[in-house]
Amino acid sequence: MKALPDWLVLCIWHALIGEIYPAIRAIAISLSDDRELLIRYYLDRPSTDFDWESLEVVATNISASIGQDKISHVDLDCKFLLDSIGRLECLDGFIYCRREYDL
To answer: What global pTM score does this model have?
Structure first.
């Protein structure tokens, strides 16, 4: 796992405004040496068209604010997993994790 650049973290946080909803457990990202960004939603249910549309909105917002000089391509992924947050693959890092209570 490599450190994510501050500019990328801030850009993605900005792109996620209004796109976080209750089914999202966590969002992980990775940035390859080829400047390809992967954004992965971890969901508490199987993915729907709504989830993919939300990811597309986030990708569009990122592309619009950064441009292709820093990000060459954005890949999107949704996974339905009920493992604890600590067992999820964090890629290069989690950009969002919801608080989950074990009651």
So the answer is: 0.92
